[in-house]
Amino acid sequence: MDMASISTEKPARQGRRRRLLIVDDEPHLARTLQILLGDEHDVDVVTSGSAARERLERDASFDAILCDLAMRDVSGMDLHDWLVGTLPDVAARMIFMTGGAYTAEARAFLDRVPNPRVEKPFRLEELQALVRDVAES
Question: What is the mean pLDDT of each run of 10 residues along the chain (137 residues)?
Fold first, then answer.
């Protein structure tokens, strides 16, 4: 694709822009989500659970957090449990992205928490709808 043909003009938006945090240890997926959701929202990206914790300790004013469930350093499950103990209202704004609950721990976690989740691969429209629902609640 010719880079000169890509428009940098933002489309007209309805409603206010939301602040999103994407937490995924797959940098290409995280960046793709940032690009796709960035037309409607202000999107920050971190590529580890520990980086997410550091970011949230400094600034927890995100309308929604899209978080991979299984990451190498600090999992989405661990991040959620930390938030429940420190910032429970932020924990409620998490949306989990998962390739499936392949471990007993992940299955038990998903059974235990009421947060919305989306299975990879997912449709962008599905993710956008979840973001709207979480941000507006």
Answer: 33 69 96 95 97 97 96 95 97 92 86 94 92 91
| Cα(72)–Cα(24) distance, integer angstroms | 10
Name the token pair of 77. Answer: 């499950």
Beta pairing, strands 117-119 & 64-68: unpaired
121: left (phi over 0), alpha (psi -120 to 50) or beta: beta
Q: Two tokens at 93?
A: 């704004």
Query: Is the distance from CB of 60 to CB of 90 less than 8 angstroms?
Result: yes
With vertex at residue 64, the alpha carbon angle to CA 59 and CA 67, rounded to the nearest 5 degrees, is 95
The pTM for the full model equals: 0.86
